[in-house]
Design goal:
Distance between the termini: 75 Å
Number of helices: 4
Number of strands: 26
Structural class: mainly beta
Shape: globular
Strand order of the largest sheet: 12-13-14-15-16-19-20-21-22-23-24-25-26
Low-confidence stretches: 1-39
Length: about 425
């Protein structure tokens, strides 16, 4: 660097050691900050079925992480979701009562809901019952807004909700919480997590209840009003264990269960006059259980394989003097391969098997159906552009074969502005 002297001559400037040190410090700090930002960039799974930086996705995604859940004043999963743009929820009463959810206007039965990769819900109702899930079990939630059948199969018309439960990491940790409010509302939960050698573990148990109020106001046009209080109670527990025999390889097992008892107002129409009778104590009892085992291993720096086997059971009984019971059993197996092509290119191929069986009081024969699917997907980034393409083929024993696909493109105009275009073909199973 040179400067002009007062005498008009050109003289060499002597470097300032303090300024040089500050410049070096700023340069190093910027480099470290860039590395930290890259490492801490939010990672999402629901958009491609494999982890990728959120900013690289061409899909419209919502991520509700653990910190957001912890800071939130939401009293339920549905209350947490309804705060996000593009998600509307309708509940028939207080927490614990039947909930309808709509992603971009698509109906409740046009949304896939997964818990740790396992499809949940009632096959007879054609939807997942979010009111049966407890916030105490959840680590984070990812939502794909838009077509999702090319990755997750039937019913991914409006989108996909992927719920992740807690997993042990770091030193042993115990947390507990509790709350008391009006209408004799109570909530409490206890969780423990951590790692010991090659093992990681996480477990939680929680219970919440409320006396509630009458779900239907007096003078109901259909004669369903009952002045009793329509409260609820929900108990949930989960356990997750993992073993890492070698770096990059983990074998895991998990079990979670929730039980819900919620009162509601309705009417029965008994002979001989078939007039509406709202006096019975109408109760909805719902239990959900998920058992799964999985393996995930890095076979090479560019190759990761995942295998999962799971069973889901949904048991719902509703009514007053006369009740109806619906039971759904699902057996699911998934084999998935993720191949890295360079630092920002990824190919995912997978095979998925699903068997659904329905039982209870209504379905005498206990019908069942089987679905096998093959899928392949590509996602990558080239400069400021992100690309994604998915193709899936489902073959179902009940309704035959269906092929779905999706193409997406996104361009980063600035670090805060992205243009996105996406088109896909979806379907809903009967």
């Amino acid at each position: 660097m040179i400067q002009r002297s007062t005498s008009g001559r050109t003289a060499a400037r002597v470097p300032n050691p303090f300024a040089a040190a500050c410049a070096l410090l700023v340069l190093c700090s910027s480099h470290v900050a860039a590395i930290a930002q890259d490492r801490l960039a939010p990672v999402v799974v629901v958009g491609t079925r494999e982890a990728e930086p959120e900013g690289r996705s061409t899909a419209d995604l919502v991520v509700i992480d653990a910190d957001t859940i912890r800071r939130s004043t939401a009293d339920s999963v549905e209350d947490l979701l309804r705060r996000e743009a593009g998600l509307q929820l309708v509940r028939s009463g207080a927490p614990g009562h039947s909930t309808g959810y709509f992603i971009r206007g698509a109906s409740t039965n046009s949304t896939v809901v997964l818990v740790d990769g396992v499809r949940i819900g009632s096959a007879s109702l054609g939807q997942a019952e979010l009111e049966g899930l407890a916030l105490s079990q959840i680590d984070r939630i990812e939502v794909l807004r838009g077509p999702g059948s090319s990755l997750y199969g039937a019913d991914g018309v409006g989108g996909v909700v992927q719920i992740f439960t807690r997993r042990g990491e770091g030193p042993p940790r115990v947390t507990a919480g509790g709350a008391i409010s009006g209408y004799r509302s109570r909530q409490g939960d206890l969780s423990v997590s951590g790692t010991t050698g090659a093992f990681d573990y996480a477990g939680s148990i929680g219970r919440e209840s409320s006396r509630g109020v009458s779900a239907i106001r007096p003078g109901d046009f259909y004669g369903n009003h009952n002045p009793d209080d329509d409260g609820y109670s929900r108990t949930a527990g989960s356990a997750r264990l993992g073993w890492t025999p070698a770096a990059g390889h983990r074998i895991g097992a998990s079990v979670s269960e929730s039980r819900l008892r919620a009162r509601y107002d309705s009417a029965e129409y008994a002979p001989p006059d078939f007039a509406p009778d709202a006096t019975p104590d109408f109760v909805n009892r719902l239990s959900q259980r998920i058992v799964s085992a999985d393996y995930r291993g890095t076979l090479a720096p560019w190759w990761t394989t995942s295998v999962q086997a799971a069973n889901h059971r949904n048991d719902s009984t509703s009514g007053g003097n006369v009740t109806s019971r619906f039971v759904t059993r699902r057996d699911q197996a998934t084999w998935q391969q993720a191949l890295r092509v360079g630092s920002e290119q990824q190919v995912v191929v997978a095979y998925e098997y699903l068997r659904e069986r329905v039982g209870g009081d209504v379905y005498i024969d206990g019908p069942s159906r089987r679905n096998q699917a093959l899928l392949a997907g590509y996602s990558g980034r080239i400069g400021s552009s992100s690309l994604q393409a998915d193709l899936r083929r489902d073959d179902n024993s009940a309704y035959g074969g269906v092929t779905t696909g999706r193409l997406g493109y996104a361009f980063d105009v600035t670090s805060q502005l992205k243009l996105r275009a996406l088109a896909g073909r979806t379907f809903r199973a009967p």
